[in-house]
Amino acid sequence: MRLRVEYRVGPELRFLANLDMMHAMERTLRRARIPYALSEGFNPHIRLSLGTVLPVGLWGEREYFDIDLVAEMKAEKFVEQLNTVFPEGLKAAQAIAIEPSAPSIMSVVNAASYVFKVENAAAEVREQIKTMTTQPELVVPSRGKKKNRPKDLKPGIYKIKVKTEEQFDIIEVWASTGASVNVRFDELLDLMALMGLSRRQVADVWRGGNYCRVEGHFYTPMEQVKKV
Fold first, then answer.
1. Closest CA to 113 of 10, 210, 216
2. Which of 89, 107, 125 is the last residue in one of the domains?
3. What confidence tens digit (pLDDT) does each residue in 85-127 have?
4. Pick from 84, 107, 130: which residue ends a domain?
């Protein structure tokens, strides 16, 4: 059987690289005595597929992975056993059984939300950020493979929500993670700097979730499976 799992990567693990995360998951699965399946070949490994890579420097509120098992196991039991041995900073939230033929997370996730916790943002700066998608283009230097080339983020920014709390402003941006326009969190930081927000004002940044955007609607990878 195959399970799709939602889990949280806490702030204390924000500097964990993707390969280290994979190793942490594999060690946890062994310690939890999960009946995982192994790949074939000379060097078999656990048939585990993490979702989109969590950038180094960010923590993640809702991350996902798929895992193949060699025996039936209730999703609730899987989550319980995993959480008994997860290292500090990792916690499974839920799991669901999916069809073995279901598309992988990597193939269906095409958007993500990035959350910025901001101190002392001026009202006019908050308004500029909130309405920046009304501008004809949003150009910043690329931080990807084509480093420092002008990159227009507007086609890849879907919506922006700004919420003012007692001491902080919370800015959440839903953006594309697809091949056509891949919006990085550090490019969003550069964009907000152009709107007048200093990097020193950004107290925290995290990925709020990964999504499957279909016809303008956002579904989590769990909802996408149920929807299909």
1. 210
2. 107
3. 999 999 999 999 999 888 888 889 999 999 999 998 889 999 9
4. 107
